[in-house]
Amino acid sequence: MADKVLRIDVDQRPHATLPRRVSYSQMALYQQCGLKFYFSYLGGWREPPTAALACGSITHEVVEHLYRLPNEERSVERAVELLREHGPRMLQMSEYRPFENDNSMKTQIRDAIENLFVLENPQEVVVDPNHLEMELNVEVNGVNFFGKVDRFTQDDMNRVTDYKTGKSPGRYIDDKLSQPYLYALAFKLQHDIDVDEVELIFLNAKEVVRRPVDQTVMLSMGDKLAVMRDGSENDIEASAWDAKVQRLCDYCAYQEACPARNVLAPKPGTAASDDMLRQAGLTSRSS
Ligand code: SF4
Questions:
Q1: How far apart, in Å, are the Cα atoms of 266 and each of 166, 273, 275, 277?
Q2: For residue range 82-114, what is the model confidence (pLDDT) as tens digits?
Q3: For residue 36, how far is its CA from the centre of ligand 1 (angstroms)?
Q4: How many Å apart are CA 80 and CA 75, to the nearest integer?
Q5: Measuring from atom 5 of ligand 1, which residue has the nearest CA?
Q6: How do residues 144-184 score in pLDDT, each as one tens digit?
């Protein structure tokens, strides 16, 4: 919830366009702050990588490989072997190399992998390998939506599962459930499959949250997607975006260059603003 909303004019590139397809992350970012969405998707700025992101990516990779194994081979020892195989390889990737020697992050990954075996028995999970990291591409309320589902299972019921690393969601659990709810809607539209349950597995926080799919909530996600697309189309047309000042501004990589946060910040999109973003450690996707 924003403390205040300021409309910020930007110096938009001529013929600037919105991304052709909309993901859940894009929608969530736009809902959080329109100006942040502008910096990221219209300005093409990339935030510095974080240990949390590296931890999440490596953990997801290992868990995916674990569930690609035959059920009887999914032991904690085999999972640790997979971590030894894929962890060092991924830490050589340019975006994760800064965390090569981050032992605290490595411990978090190891904990996450081991906790999976506390939260469920991987040998009992029946999953088609095609349903791991499963891509969804479908029109939702006139918007081209795309997403990647961590796991879709059809044993006792149709269930969409997403793994999370990091802290417990606490009172923000409904926000976290928005993503699998939107995936449930996409499943219905793309495959005519009714998802019965959405599930979030918080590996580090050792929590599993399951909810039966409520049709009203599921359909409301499609409405939110359309509202986001309409709003961003208006913003690009007006060359002005809503800066939503809130507690998350303290963690925003764009805060120095955000006129709602820093009265001395130049107009976003100008060379002076771009310089400020470079100094803050952001990189341009176009360079
Ligand atoms: S500092 Fe706050 S208002 Fe400014 S772009 Fe970031 S989230 Fe938006």
A1: 35, 5, 10, 11
A2: 999 999 999 999 999 999 999 999 999 999 999
A3: 6
A4: 9
A5: 36
A6: 999 999 999 998 899 999 999 988 888 889 889 999 999 99
Give the position, in ligand 1's atom list, of the atom nearest the Cα of 258.
Answer: 4
Instruction: Indicate which atom in ligand 1 lies nearest the CA of residue 245.
Output: 3
Question: For strand 159-164 and strand 143-153, is the pairing parallel, antiparallel, or unpaired?
Answer: antiparallel
Domain count, the chain: 3
| Mutate which of 35, 47, 262, 277 for ligand 1 pocket (most atoms within 8 A of beta carbon) | 35
Residues having CB closer than 6 A to ligand 1 are 33, 35-36, 243-245, 248-249, 252, 254-255, 258, 260-261
Residue in 147, 158, 146, 151 with CA at minimum distance from that of residue 131: 151
Same domain, 89 and 167: no
Q: For residue 115, give the amino acid letter.
A: N
Nearest to 162 by CA among 133, 127, 128: 133
In terms of domains, do 83 and 141 share one?
A: no
At 150 the three-state DSSP class reads strand
Beta strands 197-202 and 159-164: pairing type? parallel
- Which residues of the chain, if any, have pLDDT below 50? none
- Specify if 227 maps to a domain: no
Residue pair 9/242 in contact (Cβ under 8 Å)? The answer is no
Structure-block tokens of residue 91: 């830490």
Bridge partners of 1, per DSSP, are none
Centroid of ligand 1 to alpha carbon of 55 (angstroms)? 25
What is the pTM (predicted TM-score) of this model? 0.93
Q: Are 217 and 195 in contact (CB under 8 A)?
A: no
CB atoms near residue 150 (< 10 Å): 22
Q: Is residue 59 part of a domain?
A: yes
Domain of residue 88, residue span: 51-124
Do residues 238 and 11 touch, judged by C-beta distance below 8 A?
no
